[in-house]
Specification:
Arc Repressor Mutant, subunit A, six-stranded antiparallel β-sheet, Beta-Lactamase, 2 domains, 266 residues, single chain
C-alpha cells in the first residue's frame, strides 16, 4: 500500500479497482464482460482480469452459465446484514410483514437509508396472483419517494442533512428545498406519508416509520397499494393504512422502542 499526497492519505490501487468493478456491476444487473468493464471504467483488460478472477474465487462475483458475463452475488448483502443492524431489523420485521401481506392482500417492503439513497432490505409479496413489489436490493430515491421522505421526516436535523448531502448532485437537481422542508414537517405531524407513486400508475405508496430502541428512525415500512380496476382488492386504501400503522408499531416495539406516553387526563 503506497502513501501519496498529504500525510495520512493512502492509495491502494488494487482495492480501488475491485470496488470500481463491484459498483459498476451493481448498476448492471444483466452483468458485463471483462472487456465491457474495462471500456466503462477506462481501464485495460489486463488491469481488471486478475481482479475479476480473484473476486469470483472469493464469492463476490459469479459468471453466468454458458457466458462470460459477470454479476455481483448476494455475499456483499449477507455481509452487510451481519455487520449492521439490518439483520436484527429484518428478523423483527419479517413476521409482521408476512401478516400484513396476508391481511391486506398487498405487498410491502422495508427501506433503510444507505448513503444518499434508500435501500430495500426486505419485502413480502401479496399472496394473490396480482400484485406489485420492489426487489430486495432496489435503490429508492431518498428525496422524492414516500419511503425516503418518511425517513428524512423522522430523522434528526443533523442526520437528515447528512443523508441529503450524500445524494449525488444530479439527484438533488430540481428539488425545492423550502417545499421539501414543508412536506417533511407535514409528514411528522401526520405520522406517516401517502402519495401516488411517481413511477407506477394505479399504485399509491403508504409509508410509516420504524423506530429503534434509541428512538431513532431505523427504517420505513411501505405498502405500494395496487388498486385494481375491478375493485377486487382485499381491503381499501384506508384499511391498508390502518393495518400498516399497526404493523410498523409492532416492529418498533420488537426493536425495543416505547411509544411516547400521552397524558389521557389532559
Amino acid at each position: 500500500m503506497a502513501r501519496t499526497g498529504p500525510k495520512g492519505t493512502y492509495s491502494a490501487p488494487a482495492v480501488e479497482k475491485a470496488f470500481e468493478i463491484i459498483e459498476l456491476l451493481a448498476r448492471r444487473p444483466d452483468g458485463a464482460l471483462v472487456s465491457e468493464m474495462a471500456t466503462d471504467l477506462g481501464r485495460s483488460i489486463g488491469e481488471l482480469f486478475r481482479l475479476v478472477i480473484v473476486l469470483e474465487r472469493l464469492g463476490y462475483l459469479q459468471k453466468a452459465p454458458g457466458s462470460d458475463r459477470y454479476t455481483v452475488t448476494y455475499k456483499l448483502l449477507e455481509m452487510a446484514f451481519r455487520a449492521t443492524p439490518a439483520q436484527d431489523l429484518v428478523r423483527a420485521a419479517m413476521p409482521e410483514m408476512q401478516r400484513l401481506a396476508l391481511a391486506s392482500g398487498q405487498s410491502c417492503h422495508l427501506v433503510v437509508p444507505s448513503g444518499g439513497h434508500g435501500l430495500v432490505i426486505a419485502r413480502e409479496e401479496q399472496p394473490g396472483m396480482r400484485g406489485f413489489a420492489l426487489k430486495v436490493g432496489s435503490q429508492v430515491d431518498i428525496l422524492r419517494s414516500c419511503s425516503g421522505q418518511v425517513i428524512l421526516a423522522f430523522s434528526s436535523l443533523q442526520r437528515a442533512d447528512a443523508i441529503i448531502a450524500a445524494v449525488p448532485a444530479d439527484g438533488q437537481s430540481g428539488i425545492d428545498t423550502a417545499a421539501l422542508t414543508t412536506n417533511l414537517s407535514a409528514i411528522r405531524a401526520r405520522g406517516f406519508d401517502s402519495r401516488q407513486s411517481p413511477i407506477t400508475h394505479g399504485v399509491t405508496d403508504i409509508s410509516f416509520p420504524i423506530f429503534g430502541f434509541d428512538g431513532r428512525v431505523a427504517a420505513a415500512l411501505t405498502i405500494p397499494f395496487l388498486e385494481l380496476i375491478d375493485g377486487s382488492q382485499q381491503v381499501d386504501l384506508q384499511a391498508a393504512r390502518v393495518l400498516l400503522a399497526a404493523a410498523a408499531g409492532r416492529v418498533s416495539e420488537a426493536l425495543g422502542w416505547s411509544a411516547p406516553h400521552r397524558d389521557l387526563s389532559a
